[in-house]
Structures are given as C-alpha cells and as structure tokens.
Amino acid sequence: MSIKLDLTDLERRKLRSAKIKIADLHLLRPDELAKAIQCTAERARFLTV
Questions:
Q1: Region for residue 10 given its phi and psi (left: phi exceeds 0; alpha: psi -120 to 50; beta: otherwise)
Q2: Given CA atoms 16, 20, 30, 12 in this order, what sign does their dihedral have?
Q3: Residue 29 belongs to some domain of the structure
Q4: Segment 16-30, tens digit of pLDDT
Q5: Which residue among 4, 28, 44, 49 has the highest number of C-beta atoms inside a 10 angstrom radius?
C-alpha cells in the first residue's frame, strides 16, 4: 500500500533533505515536522495525522 499525501514539490524536497521518509511522518510531532520543512503548524498537523 502506498501513502498518498497532498505534498507540494517543495515539501517533498525539504523532506528529502531532512532525510524524513513519507512513511515515517506519523512518527514525528507536528512541531518537529514544521521546523524540518518550514511549514505552518496547521499544515504539519494535517500531514502527521
């Protein structure tokens, strides 16, 4: 099963540069993700749920 998220190209690049796998997003706290990919806290909460 593949995970489909509505990630922008920029978010994907930032995840890759931070060495974070999409499959591991649920393991991160939203504030950690927001800091790693420089997005809003609301966007990070959406991606980690």
A1: alpha
A2: positive
A3: yes
A4: 999 999 989 999 999
A5: 44
Longest Cα pair distance anywhere in the chain, in angstroms? 28
Instruction: Name the token pair of 30.
Output: 């939203």
CB 27 within 8 A of CB 48: no
3-state DSSP call for residue 7?
coil
Extended beta strands in the chain, E state = none
How far apart (Å, rounded) are the C-alpha atoms in residues 16 and 11?
9
Domain total in the chain: 1
The range of the structural domain enclosing residue 43 comes to 9-48
pTM: 0.83
